[in-house]
Amino acid sequence: MVAVFFWSRTTPERRRQFYALHPPRSRYRYNPVMTHKLTSLGILLSGRGSNMQAIVRACESGELPATVAIVVSNRIDAAGVAWTRERGIECRVLPHRDYEGRDAHDRAIVDELREAGVEWVCLAGYMRLLSPVFVTAFHNRILNIHPSLLPSFPGLDAQAQAHGHGVRWTGCTVHLVDTELDHGPIVEQTAVPVLSGDTVEDLEHRILLEEHPTYVRALKQLLQRRWTLQGRRLIWLD
Amino acid sequence: MVAVFFWSRTTPERRRQFYALHPPRSRYRYNPVMTHKLTSLGILLSGRGSNMQAIVRACESGELPATVAIVVSNRIDAAGVAWTRERGIECRVLPHRDYEGRDAHDRAIVDELREAGVEWVCLAGYMRLLSPVFVTAFHNRILNIHPSLLPSFPGLDAQAQAHGHGVRWTGCTVHLVDTELDHGPIVEQTAVPVLSGDTVEDLEHRILLEEHPTYVRALKQLLQRRWTLQGRRLIWLD
After folding, report:
1. Which helix or strand (DSSP H or E) is residue B70 part of?
2. Can you tell me the distance from the alpha carbon of B224 to that of B238, in angstroms, rounded to the nearest whole number?
3. How far apart are CA A143 and CA B218, in angstroms?
4. So where are chain A's domains?
5. Nearest residue of B to residue A154 by CA position?
6. Which residues fall within 8 angstroms of residue B88, CB to CB, at 6 or more apart?
7. Residue of chain B whose Cα is closest to the Cα of A171
8. Which of A48, A59, A110, B88 sits between 20 and 30 A of B35, alpha carbons compared?
9. CA angle at residue A142 from A180 to A151, to 5 degrees?
């Protein structure tokens, strides 16, 4: 309230002086009272990156208090790379074959992310397991989305696994990433029904429709709410 | 339509003659057109048997086209035994310690069920694995309910397992029983949310509320609809 009072008494000339002393950078969004820092995101992908597109759109619309600082792909032919570049978002391609082993590759990616000032990393169809090098560098600041209700059906082709198992409910899971495959603490899940007569493609499509809002919701809550980990349970404190 | 026509032309006297010739037995329910045979159920329990109570009530209300022919417990002190006897339902107690090994015990139970004319077996908190003797005797005619979205969290304390794992969705699963623990083809599942701040007891209670209607719905569909198994997928044909 004190800040509002003083700001309302400020002359236009003094405001100009203030902005001259504190020039707005792109990572900050100004409002009359205080500056809201936007969290810098780095996104890793290996394919189309439809979840990356959902996150970019949520940042642009202001739904997420964040900005996508850099996108990294391990494949030059990933469709997500072209989409990102068209949109003018910084994008680097680091093919894993150019590096000696997983650690060297992961260290190069971490360097790129650090240089771009990334605070949170989002995996969007990134088809490689992260090494301890990476997980330690962004400890509990890496998110992944998986198209099943974990711990059911980790690994590849989760939708086909669920379909073949004959479950009536599956879904998608956003979780913090550790060095095990599809394993870390769960942030958010959405349940999706499997209908009689569904093909695997029907199911993939129905889950994908839920993945985008689920990923954005999980990220938004992590950035805006207070949370802690009890064992592998992620608990909201507010 | 022909049957309806003739029945509507029948005099009360002729109806009395018909019922004298075809006396209604308890396992048959008459309607003016045709007789609907009620499926004979056998229920196995080791404890309170709240799911048994739900099935008995659904039979009594006519929601299930079935009748509970016999209840078998492996524990004399099971609360479900007293409840069943108060209600006048046939109940046998076969303590597993009285038999030499699982096969002998299961064979004794199968004999009891066969003698009572049981067609479908429902496990309601029966805390023993079934031997191949039992599973073969009632092949794909044994149902179980488990308080998780299988294949997640099989075995004991499924609700506590789910709570400790930090999932956002769990539920209950009705499945056909095979010789593996909580494993056979899934008939019906209900998804139940885990809320922030839930204790294990909160979660157990919320899941239990869904177990009763889920079990009845699964059984009703198996008895009334056409279905088949493709691998381990149970598919409705209508």
Report:
1. strand B66-73
2. 10
3. 37
4. 38-139, 144-238
5. B152
6. none
7. B169
8. B88
9. 40
Kindly report the backbone phi and psi dihedral angles of residue B110, in degrees, each rounded to the nearest multiple of 5, phi listed first.
-60, -40
B163 is known as an active-site residue: no
Neighboring chain B residues of A167 at a CB cutoff of 8 Å? 149-151, 186, 189
Active-site choice (B105, B146, B175, B212): B146
CA-based nearest residue to A77, from A107, A48, A118: A48
Residue B56's CB: how many other CB atoms inside 10 A? 22
The domain made up of B38-139 is a member of CATH 3.40.50.720: no
- What is the structure's pLDDT at B119? 96
Question: Min CA distance, B136 vs chain A (Å)?
Answer: 22
Q: Are B38-139 and B144-238 equal in CATH topology?
A: yes
Of A98, A99, A156, A152, nearest in space to A125 by CA: A156
Cross-chain residue pair B236–A196, CB shorter than 8 Å? yes
Q: Domain B144-238, what fold?
A: Rossmann fold (3.40.50)
Reduced to 3 DSSP states, what percent helix, strand and coil does chain B have, rounded to the nearest 5? 40, 25, 35
Nearest alpha carbon to residue B141 among B181, B178, B182: B178
The span from the first CA to the last CA of chain A, in angstroms, equals 23
Shortest Cα–Cα distance, B167 to chain A (Å): 6
The pTM of this model reads 0.83
Residue A190 phi, psi (nearest 5):
-125, 130
In sequence order, what are the residues at sequence separation of 6 or more whose Cβ sits closer than 8 angstroms to the Cβ of residue A197?
B235
Q: How many CB atoms lie within 10 A of CB A84?
A: 25
**What digits encode the pLDDT tens for the residues B80-122?**
999 999 999 999 999 999 999 999 999 999 999 999 999 999 9
CB contact under 8 A, A151 and B152: yes
Give the pLDDT confidence score for residue B30 in this predicted structure: 46
Separation in Å, CA A30 to CA A26, A135, A171: 10, 33, 38
| Residue A182 DSSP code | T
Q: What is the complex's ipTM, to 2 decimals? A: 0.82
Query: What's the average model confidence in pLDDT over A223-227?
Result: 93
Interatomic CA distance for residues B110 and B137, integer angstroms: 7
Nearest-angstrom CA–CA distance, A72 and A125: 12
